[in-house]
Design a protein that fits this description.
The protein folds into two domains: 212 residues, HUPs (Rossmann fold), CATH 3.40.50.620; 84 residues, Orthogonal Bundle (Tyrosyl-Transfer RNA Synthetase). The longest helix is centred in the last third of the chain and has 29 residues. By secondary structure, the chain is mainly alpha-helical. Helices cover 55% and strands 7% of the residues. The two termini are 29 Å apart. A three-stranded parallel beta sheet has the order 1-2-3. A two-stranded parallel ribbon has the order 4-5. It has 13 helices and five strands. The structure holds adenosine-5'-diphosphate and tryptophan. The site of adenosine-5'-diphosphate has 19 residues, from α1. The site of tryptophan has 14 residues, from β1, α7 and β4.
Length: 324
């Protein structure tokens, strides 16, 4: 039986990129069978968070988001990373068989430092903790967006290094990259909390309008024929409208002429379509937010299930390297 695992950092409100690049796959995957683990990567969030109250609230929001979007907690284990402290032990054991070069080559460390994040030891070690997350549950597949692929390759390297020294303790994982490659942000770069170019999943009303209003356009008028691939708004629309509707928009944009849609028109349709797409989940989120004890109970149950598996892996690793 295959095991699937993925995590999302509670470093802000989750956005369209997180949904189409990751969460949607996480929610759909259990239908194909196998074992599924999805977690809130709060230990990882310490690499950027400095505010305890804010972090606590983001952790809760990620849990609400997954539950509201339809994660079935009978078929998937939903938990908080820090409820499974065994992963920090595993991260240490893995770090001790990993050459510096492996982490030095990680592009996300350099990117994050360039963007102004403090260059801490924790940020540098981040891929080792992520490898521990993956290996703790004997994961075969790790569904993530393309930006996380390198981290999964590092996890596979670390597993192989440990196994080469101590015998077959860890399962070597594979990435499972979302077909929705990269969801763009309002500026056309990859959508990311840390670029400030994101649109939250549950944005509605004025907030949603304002966010969509920020999507960059150029000075070409509605009548000018345009290659749809050059219109960022078309890239956004494809997330929310069906293929037939998308084909119509593309055709009208590429033909141009009188009656062709202007950018304002495309934005208006995007607001409507996105609002309707997430409306049922938004209502469930608001309901669940009124039941914090129930959310705590679900997370505690998830933690228990996750921890028993991680403990077994940790014990195997400790024994293999002579600590038991
Ligand atoms: P952020 O860049 O906003 O901090 P994370 O790094 O926490 O997002 O990503 C959480 C998950 O969402 C990962 O699996 C990541 O690959 C996916 N993801 C994030 N942004 C995008 C995007 N713009 N397009 C596709 N997937 C994304
Ligand atoms: N690093 C991932 C991110 O920023 C979050 C994460 C932590 C993760 N541990 C993981 C993802 C294990 C997949 C598997 O998105």
């Amino acid at each position: 039986m295959s095991t699937y695992l993925s995590g999302i950092q509670p470093s802000g409100l989750l956005h369209w990129g997180n949904y189409f690049g990751a969460i949607r796959q996480h929610i759909a995957a259990p239908a194909g069978g196998g074992e599924h683990f999805y977690f809130i990567a709060d230990y990882h969030a310490l690499t950027s968070s400095r505010d305890a109250t804010e972090l606590r609230s983001h952790v809760r929001e990620v849990a609400l988001t997954y539950l509201a979007l339809g994660l079935d907690v009978e078929k998937s284990v939903l938990f908080r990373q820090s409820d499974v402290p065994e992963v920090t032990e595993l991260a240490w054991m893995l770090a001790c068989v990993t050459g510096m070069g492996v982490l030095e080559r990680a592009t996300s460390y350099r990117d994050k430092v360039e963007r102004g994040l403090q260059a801490t030891v924790g940020l540098f070690m981040y891929p080792a903790l992520m490898a521990a997350d993956i290996l703790a549950y004997d994961s075969n597949f790790v569904p993530v967006g393309p930006d996380q692929q390198q981290h999964i390759e590092i996890a596979a390297d670390m597993a192989a290094s440990f196994n080469a020294v101590y015998g077959p303790v860890f399962t070597v994982p594979q990435p499972s990259i979302s077909p929705f490659a990269k969801v763009p942000g309002v500026d056309g770069q990859k959508m990311s909390k840390s670029y400030g170019n994101h649109i939250p999943i549950f944005a509605t009303g004025k907030e949603l309008k304002k966010a969509v209003g920020r999507i960059v356009t150029d000075s070409r008028g509605p009548e000018e024929p345009k290659d749809p691939a050059s219109v960022l708004l078309v890239d956004f629309l494809r997330l929310f409208v069906d293929e037939a509707e998308l084909a119509q928009w593309k055709e009208r944009v590429s033909k141009g002429g009188p009656g062709a849609p202007g950018y304002g028109h495309l934005k208006q349709r995007l607001v409507e379509a996105a609002d309707a797409f997430f409306a049922p989940a938004r209502a469930r989120r608001d309901e669940l937010a009124r039941e914090p004890a129930e959310v705590d109970r679900l997370l505690a149950r998830g933690a228990e299930r996750a921890r028993s598996k991680a403990r077994a892996t940790r014990d195997r690793a400790l024994a293999a390297c002579g600590l038991r």
